[in-house]
Queue: 2 jobs
Job 1
Amino acid sequence: MQAAPLFPDTRLVEIHRRLLAFYGQPPERVVWDPLKQFIYSLLSSRTKTEVTYQVVQHLQTRFGTWEALRDAPVPEIEEAIRAITFPERKAVQLKQALEQITQRCGTLSLDFLSSYRTEKIRAWLEQFDGVGAKTSGAVVNFSSLRRRAMCVDSHHLRVTQRLGFVRKGADAHETEQRLMEMAPTEWSPMMLDEHHVLIKTHGQRLCTHSQPRCAGCPLLDMCPTGASGTSSARRGKEAR
């Protein structure tokens, strides 16, 4: 068994404190049942939060029940989710997942997952096409299941790699594993959710993909990528 480090890594706590002071308290999450959260998370990849939310609300209005959505033809589902990215692929994945849940459970519900251990829930969810660590993490952490997990989206991946917590190119599973090692054991599922929102907000507003605004970043002195870029820019100005 690997010995615990003599000095715990407190960087995640400090990052949380700084981002909370910088962006303010995130809005309280409206907690959904596991199936609705599953549908949302399956559709959300590479799509803005507000767009995915509107699409899920539209699906509820248009079809009335998740059973009616499950039984609709793929072209009709695709048309209904046209606003999100990759609607052709996601329409097929969504219909197949809803059908398979029904076949395996006898009903279209994921409420039974509350009796499973967290890792068993995630393994069960990740059997479905298009479902990886990000989606399973979102379901167990954001939904009424409220388990300890860190949902790692594209913003989280980028920020975490720039901070040097994981190697460049690390996937969501590897990144979550590292972050959960760093997260205090006393952090509740709600605190982990709050941390996810703060990191996501940071990735959307300052630590963006194409033009990160490092000069105004509250994490600059903790970020080897940002510090290196700032130093390079300074040297370039001095040379001119």
Note: The mean pLDDT is 92.
Job 2
Amino acid sequence: MTTPLPATKPPLKLYTSIASIRQWRRQRANQRNSVAMIPTMGALHAGHISLIRSAAQTHDSLVISVFVNPAQFAPHEDLSRYPRTLTTDIEQLEALNTELSSPESSSKGRIEALFVPSVPEMYPSGIPLQQELQKGAFVTVTPLSSRLEGVTRPHFFRGVATVCMKLFNIVQPDEVYFGQKDVQQTVVLKWMVSDLHVPTKIRVEDTVREEDGLAMSSRNVYLGEKRRSFAACLYKALKASEEAYLQEVAKGATVIPRGILTGPAEKVLREAGSDEVKTETEYFSVACPKELEELEQVDVNVGAVLSGAVRMLPTQENEGPVRIIDNIILKGKVEAGSAGGWAPQDLRTVVYI
């Protein structure tokens, strides 16, 4: 089924069936168009828009998916409360398409397809939230899926990997764009496409942040005014750890003990919150970039991934807890080529498989 959306030239189209989006993809293949995909669960924000703009610089045709994936929620989690704002999302995409299609734009491509499948379309066998009752084929990436976020959400990456494998198979994009905020997700998916020989490249773009450093997330709407004022505590902790790392590098250190990095972060997190706003640190990680194993010391020639999760507890009766996740990549050193010396290198380009 294909439903035209209001006034863009040529019109942005909404696809709700797998058969229709595959037909669209075949047409792009016949035209030799490069195709980029930005998978989302909707509730679009500036981070999503940034990914789309980046994809439009190098690809002819863009497809955006909006699908709130039940498989990555546990029975006690917020599937029913997850923000669903399709009308507003469409308005944002249409406005962005006008920008991308304007004569002043330097973009190569534009959004051509919005894929909004139903749950039965994506999970023909059904998808109860209880994992032991689920039927069908699922994808698990081990041991990555059981680390960090996987400790408190053991179901999560199984759901993410499964739905992304379905989307990659349905759309067959040349490249898929994700934000660095979900760093563990990007590592899991890179392992998945490598191990399963999927001919799709995973592209990771910088995290888009609010003015105080809080990483943009669709769940930030749950915070409310009181908690929002303290929500950047994790980012401040990560920056404190990064500063300690850079100070050691400047002193000429080649190996930095974990405690030097975690100490400043733990101090920031201990002091986070107030009498009204309570926070709980779920984890603060210093891990190797390739498999996210915890490190006792960081080799400055390799670098590391700092990441963490903080629960912001309810401040009133109608609120639930909100988890904040974030990360910073500690850049390793690589030779600076014929110029000699050393230069920092972004780990996204050198260590992710």
Note: The CA atoms of residues 131 and 185 lie 20 Å apart.
